[in-house]
Amino acid sequence: MAVNTNNNTTCWNRLPIFVFFTHLRNVFKWDPLGSEILQIAFPAALALAADPVASLIDTVFIGHLGSIELAAVGVSIAIFNQASKITIYPLVSITTSFVAEEETEAKIGTQDCVAEKQDELSKTNGAKELVSKDDGLRELEEGSPIEFKQTTVAKKLDEEKVGNGKRHIPSASTALVLGAILGLLQTICLIFGADTLLGIMGVKSGSPMLTPAHKYLTLRSLGAPAVLLSLAMQGVFRGLKDTKTPLYATVAADGANIILDPIFIFACRMGVSGAAIAHVLSQYLMAFILLWRLAKQVDLLPPSLKDLQFGRFLKNGFYLFTRVIAVTFCVTLAASLAARLGATQMAAFQICLQVWLTSSLLADGLAIAGQAILACAFAEKDYEKATAAASRVLQMGLILGMGLSVVVGVGLQFGDRVFTTDVSVLHYISIGVPFVAATQPINSLSFVFDGVNFGASDFAYSAYSMVLVAAGSVTSLFLLSRSHGFVGIWIALTIYMGLRTFAGIWRMGTGTGPWRFLRNTSQY
After folding, report:
1. Which SS3 state, helix, strand or coil, does residue 308 take?
2. Distance from C-alpha of 353 to C-alpha of 460, rounded to nearest angstrom
3. Is 122 a member of any domain?
4. Cα–Cα dist 448/462, whole Å
5. By three-state DSSP, how is residue 206 classified?
6. How many domains does the chain divide into?
7. Which domain holds residue 253?
8. Which residues pair with 132 in a beta bridge?
9. pLDDT tens digit string along 365-420?
10. Is residue 515 within 8 Å of 453, Cβ to Cβ?
């Protein structure tokens, strides 16, 4: 894709930060880049939003059991999400980038092979060659030209790689192996460490939240292998720029969850245990669908154990492991501090947090699109497209966030009774609404910057910057929660997201790391 950058060259050489304002008039333009972004982002956003929406529906059903049950499930979900993100988030992010890079490199390699074949065979003009025609062989006359179609050669080269016609992607096989191992480890840790983890979250012995929280967490942990395998496979599909398949699988699974929830919770009188069982069954359904679809496209069993890329995954995974601990620790700490304020405040915080995360995750669709496109662009060394894609997804993210502010603010202000009828809980929800709505633009930018950094394989900076962000955010959480309680927690979360966004702006705006080419546009 050609992008005219001549008018901006002088500005970029002086201040790379002008990249954020590049081609603002094209933000809504339906050009090849915009089409590619939306074709990846829209299904991805729907898939990402589907699971939190299912959690919101869980919250609606559980909220009718009582504020204690709602608060207990909120604590358990916070623990489960923390554990899942620590184990799988690095794997998903790395898998998306590595699969996109491998696919791009394979295409480049195929094109090079085709060109080489054509060059070699053109030099044999005048030689005798045997070619197949109508199941028979004929000898070319000396001096006749030999023509080869690029698509035919490319197809043959692909078939030589994998005999059954499927693609061999080492990073995909590695991701599945790691996902299965991490899922089993997570289940074991959550089951045997449930009481300890709940105690850390402020649910001590004697608390009315302990029993329902323990039931929900232990049962929900049985679905960890399915959750991690599903997310690992979603990373593979994202790298292949296929976000529709994960969407179909997610909708099917969450649809099953919505149907099973009232059956198990109310009809079978299982309460919070029923909600957990419904969620676990839906996760295994999703894992089955994704595995079935992926097995049709990719050779999941590597030819040799040497093809597995454990070293490459672990090296970059360490950076993202550090990063995800810092990211999720802030939200988990906020939930813990809210739980210590009491069941009423925790119930209100859980509802606001679910809405906050659900709406903000819509921007993750743009992040996934940016990551996949940028990973391919950097593999091709197409810095022009990398610049255009990064600026476009960030501009779209900001506009999306502004729209979400209005929708979330109005929707939660008038629709809070869908979650609970407890007057005290509704009071605290009304306090949290302004924060949930106002932070949507910076939340959207923050998520999109994550995708941009991962697409540029800037994993080290993502880790180091997030550790600094977390240090400042944790400090503000402790100080503000003590002085301002429920309001203080939301002020601290606003600071946290603001710092995350600033870290992304700083990297690209200063033209450092993988973005140093912004200082010298002659490179592209």
Report:
1. coil
2. 29
3. no
4. 13
5. coil
6. 1
7. 17-109+162-523
8. 137
9. 899 999 999 999 998 889 989 999 999 999 999 999 999 999 888 887 777 777 77
10. no
